[in-house]
Amino acid sequence: MKHFINILLFIFCSISLRLSLNAQSMKSFFLIMRNTGEYTLWDGNKIRTFGFAENIVSHPLIPGPTIEVNEGDTVKIGAMNFSQGAPHTIHLHGLDVNQENDGVPHLSFAIEHMDTGYYTFIAKHAGNYLYHCHVSSTLHVQMGMYGKIIVKDKHNSKRAWTNGPEYNSEYAWMTSEFDTLWHSDSVLNMDIDHFDSTGHSEIPIPNYNPQYFLINGKSQNQLYDDDIKLQFKANESIYLRLFNIGFLYNEYVFPSILNAKLISSDGRPINNPEYIDTIIAFPGERFGVMLSGSEEDSGLIELRYRNMNTDSIINSQWIPYNIRYFASTTEKLIKTNYAYPNPSKGNININLGYQIEKSRLKEVFIFNIHGQRIFPQIHIDSNKIVIDLSNYKNGNYLIVVDNKSFISSIMR
Amino acid sequence: MRYLILFFIMTYWNLSFSQIKTLDIYIHHGQVLMYDSIAIDVTSFNNIDSFQAKHLNLKYSVGDSLLISIYNRDSSSHQLCIPYLNWFSDTIKTGDSLNSSLKLNQSGFFVLKDVIHNHNVLDGSIQVGYNNNKSFYWNIRSFSSVNSLNPYRPDYFTLNTHSKPDIVYDSSAVPVANVGDTVLIFIANTGLSYHSLHFHGFHSEILFSSKFSNHSGRLKDTFPIYPKQSLILRMVPDKTGIYPVHDHNLLAVTGGGIYPNGMFISMKINGQ
């Protein structure tokens, strides 16, 4: 009997150990820290930067490589200093790590040139965090030594956190600024001249008058790039992650059609989520915002950069969004017999039961199977409209008019 | 009869827990020294009749009634107020004094400020309730050594008029606690700049926000604080170590243009 109990106990412990190993995984990252970066701004101007690179031969990225893990993961970040300059560290901002892994040089450790250090933590809470160098941080952060840390839900199931709100797609915007004066050699080399490993480095800091206002290192026409411009389908939700690592505070003005809902702050759910058109993010803050739209629309989100002393708006950047009307959710479609013939060889008739005004024909939306809006000829014939798809390929087309949706096929 | 007895019980209850307290405030002009011995002209209000280069921080209980006497020893007029409690004194001319009263009916942490001068005065604060907790107090402020308001470009950033490195000697400001302690931090921004205080090591809960009451209950590591606003944070440290708190507007970690002699403080968390 005693042996039997021992065997049972052994099996139980083995299963428990196996389950616990399955539940959490180890994720490792390796970053190169460099002082010799060159970064090209939106207008072609090139500046010198510090930063985090993915490998030893490439320039640092602005922001640095995104570290993406899941809730419960044990995370190990290796960092090699290949700077030929002052020491660097990684501060894991918001992850509540212990002193040893906190990245404050005189309280944990600094990584000297050609040396490598390691930081370890458990990602306890899904959410948005950031990392940055904490050596002479005013200087090194301005130089570009920062990046995003995204902790996703435990099951990687497109939820803001484990069992949290669902989304269809996500974007991550990290804001910062550049003052090109700070990126001159005379300023950049000050940290080498003044660094003291006991934590008493004193560095003169110039006045701050930024000329470049960045989202993911980009601005102006670069905001139409795919990682920034919001593109999503009507009736779907996107999760927008906001990170401010700049020295100004950000004010996002969302058009009301986007139904902006603030759901998390600094890596924790907000207990009273609120629909809000203006979201303010101070330096170091991170937010999670859920956006959705039920109508096709395109427009711009204003992002204001405001001075922390005068409250004046220093700059505004405009971020485009585009909501497409594409029937990915079939339950939203009203099935009807009023589109005919189906399939058609060219002309599709839709009987509305009333006469639509000619001026409203631009409100008839027609999309191909890829979700792209097309613009065929449309005619009004008493209480119906006739859509001429004879110049378009065989396939299914979605037609939306007066909040009614129709799917018709062209087959020749 | 039943209601009469209840009335007397309630009256007795109120009288037994609330007190009438006198508060004398003296307004004086002087200078506050920055860490590098730069002197900045300021007016301060304190409860002794001489200039003190510090912010007045008052502590009371909910239900207390204050009988306030204000003496203006400065060369210009002043008017004190606690906007959150909708209390405003009359204007007090040079050499004058006045009496006022204030009933403290709600708990919180409020800025006590000057209505007439909002730049070169060491505004104070008043804590009501929360008296039985391990607590620390930060009056954060920006100073402009050139006294320039147009545009406002401060060059010193202090906690309780100190900055790194001198701030380590202010035991009312430097959080020292044990793992598992409940620690309250009372923060008043009495300057004109906006600040964003980042805590290493721990998230804290917002217990009170004078600007955004709906933010109460939020767990955060970085806390915006607007000019003339106040916060109460609750933190329960879960590990030992030394953890910095600093403004994440990293320009405010400088003092006199030198990094890191600005708004930077460290918490020390010991084992139980």
Distance between the termini of chain A: 79 Å
Output the CATH homologous superfamily of chain B: Cupredoxins -  blue copper proteins
Q: What is the CATH top level name of chain B? A: Mainly Beta
CATH topology of the largest domain in chain A: Immunoglobulin-like
Share of helical residues of chain B: under 10%
The class by helix and strand makeup of chain A works out as mainly beta
E-strand count of chain A: 28
Q: In one word, what is the shape of chain B?
A: globular
Write a concise synopsis of the structure shown.
Chain A is mainly beta and 412 residues long. In chain A, 9% of the residues lie in helices and 43% in strands. Chain A has three domains: 149 residues, Immunoglobulin-like, CATH 2.60.40; 145 residues, Cupredoxins -  blue copper proteins (Immunoglobulin-like, Sandwich); 81 residues, Immunoglobulin-like, CATH 2.60.40.
Task: Outline the fold blueprint.
The complex is a heterodimer of chains A (412) and B (272).
Chain A: H1 2-23, E1 26-40, E2 46-53, E3 64-70, E4 74-81, E5 91-93, E6 116-122, E7 127-132, H2 137-143, E8 146-152, E9 169-178, H3 185-188, H4 190-194, E10 203-204, E11 212-215, E12 230-233, E13 237-244, E14 249-253, E15 261-265, E16 268-275, E17 278-281, E18 286-292, E19 297-306, E20 313-324, E21 339-340, E22 347-351, E23 365-367, E24 373-374, E25 377-381, E26 384-388, E27 395-401, E28 404-410
Chain B: H1 2-17, E1 20-33, E2 39-46, E3 57-60, E4 65-72, E5 80-82, E6 87-88, E7 97-103, E8 108-114, E9 121-122, E10 124-128, E11 134-143, E12 156-159, E13 176-178, E14 183-189, E15 195-199, E16 204-209, E17 219-220, E18 222-225, E19 230-235, E20 241-247, E21 258-259, E22 264-270
Parallel strand pairs in B: 1-4, 2-9, 3-10, 11-14, 13-22
Antiparallel strand pairs in B: 1-2, 4-7, 5-6, 5-8, 8-10, 11-12, 14-19, 15-18, 15-20, 16-17, 16-19, 20-22
